[in-house]
Amino acid sequence: MQSISIKNVSGDRLIDPFQREYFYLRLSITDVCNFRCTYCLPNGYQPDPERDKFLTLDEIRRLGTAFAAMGTEKIRITGGEPTLRKDFLPIVETVSQLDGIKNVALTTNGYRMAKDVAEWKKAGITSINVSVDSLDPRMFHSITGENKFHDVMRGIDQAFECGYQKVKVNSVLMKNLNDKEFDQFLNWIKDRPIQMRFIELMQTGEMDSFFDKYHISGQVLANKLLHSGWQLKKRGRSDGPAKVFYHPDYVGEIGLIMPYEKNFCASCNRLRVSAKGKLHLCLFGEEGIDLRDLLQSDEQQFILRARLFSALQGKREHHFLHLGDSGVRANLATIGG
Questions:
Q1: Are 137 and 147 in contact (CB under 8 A)?
Q2: DSSP 8-state symbol, 266
Q3: DSSP state at residue 284
Q4: In this predicted model, what pLDDT tens digit does every residue of 185-204 receive, in sequence order?
Q5: Could you give the CA distance from residue 111 to residue 104 in angstroms, rounded to a whole number?
Q6: What is the torsional sign of CA 41, 238, 74, 293?
Protein backbone atom coordinates (compact mmCIF):
# COMPACT_ATOMS: atom_id res chain seq x y z
CA MET A 1 0.00 0.00 0.00
CA GLN A 2 1.45 3.37 -1.03
CA SER A 3 1.73 5.81 1.85
CA ILE A 4 1.00 9.51 1.61
CA SER A 5 3.89 11.87 2.17
CA ILE A 6 2.88 14.56 4.62
CA LYS A 7 6.09 16.60 4.65
CA ASN A 8 5.59 20.24 3.75
CA VAL A 9 1.92 19.93 4.64
CA SER A 10 1.28 22.47 7.38
CA GLY A 11 -1.69 22.46 9.69
CA ASP A 12 -2.72 22.93 13.28
CA ARG A 13 -3.36 20.19 15.77
CA LEU A 14 -6.93 19.27 16.57
CA ILE A 15 -7.68 21.82 19.31
CA ASP A 16 -11.11 23.38 19.79
CA PRO A 17 -12.01 26.86 21.11
CA PHE A 18 -12.23 25.45 24.65
CA GLN A 19 -8.62 24.18 24.47
CA ARG A 20 -9.62 20.52 24.31
CA GLU A 21 -7.21 18.51 22.16
CA TYR A 22 -8.42 15.52 20.17
CA PHE A 23 -6.28 12.38 20.07
CA TYR A 24 -9.03 9.86 19.37
CA LEU A 25 -11.03 9.20 16.19
CA ARG A 26 -14.06 6.94 16.08
CA LEU A 27 -14.30 5.84 12.47
CA SER A 28 -17.45 4.11 11.27
CA ILE A 29 -16.89 1.96 8.19
CA THR A 30 -20.47 0.73 7.69
CA ASP A 31 -24.03 1.47 8.78
CA VAL A 32 -24.99 -2.18 8.36
CA CYS A 33 -25.62 -4.28 11.46
CA ASN A 34 -26.91 -7.85 11.69
CA PHE A 35 -28.28 -7.43 15.24
CA ARG A 36 -31.58 -5.74 16.12
CA CYS A 37 -30.87 -4.32 19.57
CA THR A 38 -33.93 -2.84 21.24
CA TYR A 39 -32.14 0.38 22.20
CA CYS A 40 -30.59 0.98 18.78
CA LEU A 41 -32.12 -0.79 15.75
CA PRO A 42 -35.24 -2.61 16.96
CA ASN A 43 -36.49 -3.01 13.39
CA GLY A 44 -33.12 -4.07 12.03
CA TYR A 45 -30.96 -2.35 9.45
CA GLN A 46 -32.97 -0.67 6.70
CA PRO A 47 -30.84 -0.21 3.56
CA ASP A 48 -31.40 2.81 1.33
CA PRO A 49 -30.42 1.98 -2.28
CA GLU A 50 -30.23 5.67 -3.16
CA ARG A 51 -27.62 6.54 -0.57
CA ASP A 52 -23.91 6.87 -1.24
CA LYS A 53 -21.66 3.89 -0.73
CA PHE A 54 -19.39 3.59 2.27
CA LEU A 55 -15.87 5.00 2.35
CA THR A 56 -13.39 3.06 0.23
CA LEU A 57 -10.06 1.75 1.45
CA ASP A 58 -8.17 4.61 -0.22
CA GLU A 59 -10.54 7.19 1.25
CA ILE A 60 -10.04 5.69 4.70
CA ARG A 61 -6.26 5.79 4.23
CA ARG A 62 -6.33 9.47 3.27
CA LEU A 63 -8.66 10.32 6.12
CA GLY A 64 -6.53 8.47 8.67
CA THR A 65 -3.37 10.10 7.37
CA ALA A 66 -4.80 13.58 7.89
CA PHE A 67 -6.00 12.83 11.41
CA ALA A 68 -2.68 11.20 12.35
CA ALA A 69 -0.77 14.23 11.04
CA MET A 70 -2.86 16.43 13.34
CA GLY A 71 -2.12 14.43 16.48
CA THR A 72 -4.58 11.54 16.47
CA GLU A 73 -3.07 8.56 18.29
CA LYS A 74 -6.03 6.20 18.55
CA ILE A 75 -8.54 5.12 15.92
CA ARG A 76 -11.54 3.02 16.89
CA ILE A 77 -13.18 1.16 14.03
CA THR A 78 -16.94 1.03 14.50
CA GLY A 79 -20.16 0.48 12.56
CA GLY A 80 -22.93 -0.74 12.38
CA GLU A 81 -21.02 -3.99 12.66
CA PRO A 82 -17.60 -3.25 11.10
CA THR A 83 -16.59 -6.89 10.60
CA LEU A 84 -19.39 -7.28 8.04
CA ARG A 85 -17.25 -5.46 5.49
CA LYS A 86 -15.45 -7.86 3.16
CA ASP A 87 -12.37 -5.64 3.23
CA PHE A 88 -12.35 -5.32 7.02
CA LEU A 89 -8.87 -6.83 7.43
CA PRO A 90 -7.26 -4.63 4.74
CA ILE A 91 -8.86 -1.59 6.42
CA VAL A 92 -7.34 -2.61 9.77
CA GLU A 93 -3.94 -3.24 8.21
CA THR A 94 -4.00 0.15 6.48
CA VAL A 95 -5.03 2.11 9.57
CA SER A 96 -2.58 0.31 11.84
CA GLN A 97 0.34 1.24 9.56
CA LEU A 98 -0.31 4.99 9.64
CA ASP A 99 2.48 7.05 11.21
CA GLY A 100 1.54 8.18 14.69
CA ILE A 101 -1.32 5.75 15.27
CA LYS A 102 -0.55 3.78 18.43
CA ASN A 103 -3.87 2.04 19.06
CA VAL A 104 -6.37 0.59 16.60
CA ALA A 105 -9.42 -0.45 18.59
CA LEU A 106 -12.52 -2.32 17.44
CA THR A 107 -16.12 -2.20 18.64
CA THR A 108 -18.03 -5.31 17.59
CA ASN A 109 -21.14 -7.30 18.46
CA GLY A 110 -18.81 -10.31 18.60
CA TYR A 111 -20.73 -12.69 16.38
CA ARG A 112 -17.59 -13.49 14.28
CA MET A 113 -15.14 -13.17 17.13
CA ALA A 114 -14.58 -16.84 17.95
CA LYS A 115 -13.65 -17.60 14.36
CA ASP A 116 -11.77 -14.46 13.34
CA VAL A 117 -10.28 -12.75 16.40
CA ALA A 118 -6.78 -14.16 15.79
CA GLU A 119 -6.84 -12.66 12.29
CA TRP A 120 -7.99 -9.33 13.70
CA LYS A 121 -5.03 -9.29 16.07
CA LYS A 122 -2.62 -10.20 13.31
CA ALA A 123 -4.00 -7.40 11.12
CA GLY A 124 -3.39 -4.80 13.83
CA ILE A 125 -6.36 -4.58 16.21
CA THR A 126 -4.79 -3.69 19.56
CA SER A 127 -7.93 -3.66 21.72
CA ILE A 128 -11.49 -4.96 21.46
CA ASN A 129 -14.83 -3.81 22.82
CA VAL A 130 -17.61 -6.38 22.47
CA SER A 131 -21.27 -5.89 23.37
CA VAL A 132 -22.84 -8.25 25.90
CA ASP A 133 -26.08 -6.84 27.26
CA SER A 134 -26.97 -9.87 29.36
CA LEU A 135 -25.39 -12.99 30.83
CA ASP A 136 -28.71 -14.78 30.45
CA PRO A 137 -28.92 -16.28 26.94
CA ARG A 138 -32.68 -15.68 26.78
CA MET A 139 -32.39 -12.03 27.81
CA PHE A 140 -29.46 -11.61 25.41
CA HIS A 141 -31.67 -12.93 22.61
CA SER A 142 -34.53 -10.65 23.66
CA ILE A 143 -32.37 -7.51 23.66
CA THR A 144 -30.27 -8.19 20.54
CA GLY A 145 -32.76 -10.08 18.41
CA GLU A 146 -30.13 -12.78 17.85
CA ASN A 147 -29.54 -16.10 19.59
CA LYS A 148 -25.76 -15.63 19.64
CA PHE A 149 -24.90 -15.48 23.33
CA HIS A 150 -22.75 -18.62 23.43
CA ASP A 151 -20.96 -17.62 20.21
CA VAL A 152 -20.03 -14.26 21.72
CA MET A 153 -18.84 -15.90 24.96
CA ARG A 154 -16.62 -18.24 22.96
CA GLY A 155 -15.28 -15.22 21.12
CA ILE A 156 -14.25 -13.53 24.35
CA ASP A 157 -12.49 -16.71 25.49
CA GLN A 158 -10.76 -16.94 22.12
CA ALA A 159 -9.55 -13.34 22.37
CA PHE A 160 -7.68 -14.22 25.55
CA GLU A 161 -6.38 -17.42 23.93
CA CYS A 162 -4.82 -15.50 21.04
CA GLY A 163 -3.04 -13.02 23.28
CA TYR A 164 -5.26 -10.11 24.27
CA GLN A 165 -4.51 -9.19 27.89
CA LYS A 166 -7.82 -7.41 28.43
CA VAL A 167 -11.21 -7.30 26.72
CA LYS A 168 -13.71 -4.50 27.20
CA VAL A 169 -17.33 -5.60 27.36
CA ASN A 170 -20.13 -3.08 26.77
CA SER A 171 -23.59 -3.37 28.26
CA VAL A 172 -26.50 -0.96 28.20
CA LEU A 173 -28.28 -1.49 31.52
CA MET A 174 -32.04 -0.94 31.32
CA LYS A 175 -34.60 -0.74 34.08
CA ASN A 176 -36.66 -3.90 34.60
CA LEU A 177 -34.77 -5.68 31.79
CA ASN A 178 -31.14 -6.47 32.54
CA ASP A 179 -30.44 -4.11 35.46
CA LYS A 180 -30.96 -6.94 37.93
CA GLU A 181 -27.84 -8.60 36.46
CA PHE A 182 -25.49 -5.89 37.77
CA ASP A 183 -24.16 -8.09 40.59
CA GLN A 184 -23.92 -11.06 38.23
CA PHE A 185 -21.71 -9.03 35.90
CA LEU A 186 -19.50 -8.12 38.87
CA ASN A 187 -19.12 -11.80 39.77
CA TRP A 188 -18.31 -12.61 36.15
CA ILE A 189 -15.27 -10.30 36.09
CA LYS A 190 -13.98 -11.16 39.55
CA ASP A 191 -11.33 -13.51 38.16
CA ARG A 192 -11.29 -12.35 34.52
CA PRO A 193 -9.30 -9.43 33.01
CA ILE A 194 -12.43 -7.83 31.59
CA GLN A 195 -13.32 -4.17 31.82
CA MET A 196 -17.09 -4.31 32.16
CA ARG A 197 -18.47 -1.07 30.78
CA PHE A 198 -22.02 -0.04 31.65
CA ILE A 199 -23.35 2.52 29.20
CA GLU A 200 -26.20 4.74 30.32
CA LEU A 201 -29.15 4.51 27.95
CA MET A 202 -29.15 7.63 25.77
CA GLN A 203 -32.12 9.39 24.29
CA THR A 204 -32.34 9.54 20.48
CA GLY A 205 -34.98 10.89 18.14
CA GLU A 206 -36.63 7.55 17.45
CA MET A 207 -36.48 6.23 21.00
CA ASP A 208 -38.07 8.84 23.28
CA SER A 209 -40.70 6.55 24.85
CA PHE A 210 -38.19 3.69 25.17
CA PHE A 211 -35.82 6.01 27.01
CA ASP A 212 -38.52 7.17 29.40
CA LYS A 213 -39.42 3.57 30.22
CA TYR A 214 -35.98 1.99 30.64
CA HIS A 215 -33.44 4.69 31.53
CA ILE A 216 -31.32 4.25 34.67
CA SER A 217 -28.96 6.97 35.87
CA GLY A 218 -25.32 5.93 35.78
CA GLN A 219 -24.78 7.81 39.01
CA VAL A 220 -26.84 5.17 40.80
CA LEU A 221 -24.30 2.54 39.68
CA ALA A 222 -21.35 4.79 40.57
CA ASN A 223 -22.67 5.25 44.12
CA LYS A 224 -23.18 1.51 44.48
CA LEU A 225 -19.59 0.80 43.41
CA LEU A 226 -18.09 3.44 45.69
CA HIS A 227 -20.05 2.11 48.65
CA SER A 228 -18.71 -1.39 47.90
CA GLY A 229 -15.04 -0.40 47.97
CA TRP A 230 -14.42 0.30 44.29
CA GLN A 231 -12.00 3.15 43.53
CA LEU A 232 -11.75 5.51 40.58
CA LYS A 233 -8.75 5.20 38.24
CA LYS A 234 -6.96 8.14 36.65
CA ARG A 235 -8.04 8.72 33.06
CA GLY A 236 -5.47 8.35 30.27
CA ARG A 237 -5.02 10.97 27.55
CA SER A 238 -6.50 8.91 24.72
CA ASP A 239 -9.00 6.99 26.83
CA GLY A 240 -12.67 7.09 25.99
CA PRO A 241 -15.35 8.68 28.17
CA ALA A 242 -15.69 5.86 30.69
CA LYS A 243 -15.02 6.45 34.37
CA VAL A 244 -13.05 3.34 35.30
CA PHE A 245 -13.21 1.76 38.75
CA TYR A 246 -10.98 -0.93 40.25
CA HIS A 247 -11.22 -3.10 43.35
CA PRO A 248 -8.35 -4.94 45.09
CA ASP A 249 -10.39 -8.15 45.20
CA TYR A 250 -11.22 -8.15 41.47
CA VAL A 251 -9.11 -8.95 38.41
CA GLY A 252 -11.59 -7.09 36.21
CA GLU A 253 -12.58 -3.44 36.17
CA ILE A 254 -15.82 -1.49 35.83
CA GLY A 255 -16.28 1.39 33.41
CA LEU A 256 -19.27 3.72 33.57
CA ILE A 257 -20.24 5.91 30.62
CA MET A 258 -22.58 8.58 31.97
CA PRO A 259 -23.40 11.20 29.32
CA TYR A 260 -25.92 12.93 31.60
CA GLU A 261 -23.29 13.62 34.24
CA LYS A 262 -22.38 17.26 34.88
CA ASN A 263 -19.19 18.25 33.01
CA PHE A 264 -19.26 15.02 30.96
CA CYS A 265 -18.02 16.96 27.93
CA ALA A 266 -15.20 18.80 29.70
CA SER A 267 -12.70 16.03 28.95
CA CYS A 268 -13.90 15.28 25.42
CA ASN A 269 -10.98 14.04 23.30
CA ARG A 270 -12.69 12.25 20.41
CA LEU A 271 -14.18 13.03 17.03
CA ARG A 272 -16.31 10.86 14.77
CA VAL A 273 -16.42 10.23 11.05
CA SER A 274 -19.39 8.39 9.59
CA ALA A 275 -19.23 5.56 7.06
CA LYS A 276 -20.23 8.07 4.37
CA GLY A 277 -17.38 10.46 5.17
CA LYS A 278 -19.00 13.10 7.38
CA LEU A 279 -17.20 14.57 10.36
CA HIS A 280 -19.36 14.69 13.48
CA LEU A 281 -18.14 16.92 16.27
CA CYS A 282 -20.52 15.35 18.78
CA LEU A 283 -22.45 12.10 19.02
CA PHE A 284 -25.53 14.22 19.68
CA GLY A 285 -25.33 17.16 17.34
CA GLU A 286 -25.50 18.37 13.80
CA GLU A 287 -25.83 16.78 10.39
CA GLY A 288 -22.07 16.61 10.00
CA ILE A 289 -19.40 18.23 7.83
CA ASP A 290 -18.74 16.47 4.55
CA LEU A 291 -15.12 15.40 4.02
CA ARG A 292 -15.51 13.02 1.12
CA ASP A 293 -14.78 15.52 -1.63
CA LEU A 294 -11.32 15.95 -0.07
CA LEU A 295 -10.60 12.21 0.08
CA GLN A 296 -10.25 11.67 -3.66
CA SER A 297 -6.55 12.43 -4.05
CA ASP A 298 -3.39 12.24 -1.96
CA GLU A 299 -2.68 15.83 -3.00
CA GLN A 300 -5.70 17.11 -1.04
CA GLN A 301 -4.13 16.58 2.38
CA PHE A 302 -3.43 20.24 3.08
CA ILE A 303 -7.01 21.32 2.32
CA LEU A 304 -8.43 18.34 4.20
CA ARG A 305 -6.51 19.20 7.32
CA ALA A 306 -7.54 22.84 7.02
CA ARG A 307 -11.19 21.79 6.82
CA LEU A 308 -10.82 19.55 9.88
CA PHE A 309 -9.32 22.36 11.93
CA SER A 310 -11.87 24.89 10.72
CA ALA A 311 -14.78 22.56 11.48
CA LEU A 312 -13.49 21.94 14.98
CA GLN A 313 -13.69 25.65 15.76
CA GLY A 314 -17.47 25.26 15.65
CA LYS A 315 -17.60 22.53 18.28
CA ARG A 316 -19.96 23.24 21.16
CA GLU A 317 -18.74 23.26 24.74
CA HIS A 318 -21.21 20.51 25.66
CA HIS A 319 -24.19 18.56 24.39
CA PHE A 320 -27.74 19.28 25.52
CA LEU A 321 -28.87 15.80 26.54
CA HIS A 322 -29.65 17.00 30.03
CA LEU A 323 -32.21 19.36 28.47
CA GLY A 324 -33.81 16.55 26.46
CA ASP A 325 -32.16 17.68 23.21
CA SER A 326 -30.52 14.73 21.44
CA GLY A 327 -29.82 16.70 18.26
CA VAL A 328 -30.55 15.15 14.88
CA ARG A 329 -29.47 11.60 15.76
CA ALA A 330 -32.29 9.17 14.97
CA ASN A 331 -30.30 6.18 16.25
CA LEU A 332 -26.71 5.37 17.14
CA ALA A 333 -26.03 2.77 14.42
CA THR A 334 -25.47 5.48 11.80
CA ILE A 335 -22.42 6.88 13.58
CA GLY A 336 -20.97 4.10 15.66
CA GLY A 337 -22.06 5.25 19.13
A1: yes
A2: G
A3: S
A4: 999 999 999 999 998 887 76
A5: 20
A6: positive
